[in-house]
Amino acid sequence: QVQLVESGGGSVQAGGSRRLSCAASGRSFSRLAMGWFRQAPGKEREFVAARTWIGTTYYADSVKGRFTISRDNAKNTVYLQMDSLRPEDTAVYYCAVSRTAGVGIGPDEYDYWGQGTQVTVSS
Predict the structure, then answer these.
(1) Under 8 Å CB-to-CB from 36, ≥6 apart: which residues?
(2) DSSP symbols for 78-103
């Protein structure tokens, strides 16, 4: 059974940092892209960042230069380092595994999802 478990969410003041982790189990995803999405109250789920197994990365414009996605293929784990956080970054953050090796920005391009972890940034 495939399972993605996120951790690292919590509350932080604006300008602070937070590191999210997502551990995948049930099968190897080393050849597939993994990504992060987020969903704020009343808004649609939006793409944040993704990384292929060979290291190609892609970021939403809103987080470029502040967030860094990394992964440990041996551990089936993906990370999201979030720096210079802003109140508008407040959302539930989800990790996901793509159905392909390439980077995708649409939620429908991802087959497996974690349960989400809340990140709240206060001003």
Answers:
(1) 20, 22, 48, 49, 50, 69, 78, 80, 93, 94, 95, 96
(2) EEEEE-S--GGG-EEEEEEEESSSS-
Would you call 121 helix, strand, or coil by DSSP? strand
CB atoms within 10 A of CB 17: 11
- Residue 15 DSSP symbol: T
CB 32 within 8 A of CB 54: no
Each residue's pLDDT tens digit, 62-120:
999 999 999 998 888 999 999 999 999 999 999 999 988 888 899 999 999 999 999 99
Cβ atoms of 36 and 92 closer than 8 Å:
no
Distance CA 44, CA 116 (A): 14
Looking at residue 74, its pLDDT comes to 86
Closest CA to 119 of 20, 4, 49, 51: 20
- Taking CA atoms, 96 is separated from 61, 84, 118, in Å, by 19, 23, 15
